[in-house]
Design goal:
With 184 residues, the chain is an alpha+beta fold. It is built from five helices and nine strands. It has one domain: Ribosomal Protein L22, Chain A (Alpha-Beta Complex), CATH 3.90.470. The longest helix has 22 residues.
Amino acid sequence: MRCIFAGLLFRYAFLQQGYGINEWQQIETTEGTYGKPYLIKYPTFHYSLSHSGEWVACAVDTKSVGIDIQEMKSWKLTLAKRFYHEEEFNRLLMLQRYDVDEQTKEFYRMWTAKESAVKWSGRGIGGGIQQFVTATDYKSIYDINQKQRINIRQYRVSRDYIVCVCSENNNFPDLPQQVNLEYQ
């Protein structure tokens, strides 16, 4: 069901950017080397989709964009050890001594930043989620391989969900636009 809602949300975002139904009917998508979808006839319309639990998220931009949404639930430190840079892993370990809830929030702040960056790059998780290192202020993420800093913006969309958008552009909205797509 979330995949259907993701498609509807993508369609809504496309139409909200000023494209009409005629353009929608002419959409042709293809995939990059690692599977990132893009629109053949609209080279300046970039999008990214994500879903977790009861939420679906979509980001659009004029340049490459990535988005990730995650439900903050239990996780294992071994996951961070495997996928996080040593600096990030040590930040999590420091929080373990003080506040487990804060450590969980930090884990997901890092995870959504890293996954949105992977989607932004088009290289996929197999391309190395470890190559992205989050800044402590969560305004950017550093791509070790490309030696490039990319802008990110995080939002809490509810008590248990966090979303992160990654883009070369730094014109993020103060609040994400929420669209209610209820299924009855």
